[in-house]
Amino acid sequence: MKRYKYILILVMALLLFWSCSSTKNDIANNSKTNQFIQLKELIASRSFKFKAETAYPVQTYDMMQVTNALLRNTGNTAGRISLMGNDDYITIKGDSVQAELAYFGERRMGFNTDPQDIGVHFEGKPKTYDVIENTKKKTFNIEFETRWKTEQYDVTLLVYPSKNATVFISSTNRTSIRYDGKIEKLEETDKTPKQVAQ
Fold it and tell me: How far is CA 76 from CA 63, 67, 89, 166, 179, in A?
């Protein structure tokens, strides 16, 4: 009889533990679902800004040699450069995009008449704009193509429910680069992209 009491208490304790852990999982899943719904609304509004925090340039041998020498004792490396304190961004507002991003890498070809114009810059209406929703991973892929002056940019923005985001930019004239950062709702005071005829 005593033995049955111990077994009964053990079974009840296990059931209680199991129900508590499933409740924690349900709360975590609900929180993630709510974040995903909020993110979906933000992406659908087409009024948000990506703020870059870190740049990850593609490393070629020459790039590594120069960058390591320049970045010595700064806390950065040739493969990871902090952009904290800079205003590096991509803005999406309505049917327009605008970007001002620091660029670290090699120009492959092309002629740039303005030596001050060394970053990634574009503004205006993109040639294509696609949003791909991954409900299983609860992420969004935003892909667009745009052109600025003589340069064609292919941009992929991968956004997570936590509003962390990764941007991949490939260009006709430069080596590719990746940026990590966050997205946020575009405030009315933020710079609005201009409609530019190209």
Answer: 14, 9, 20, 19, 14
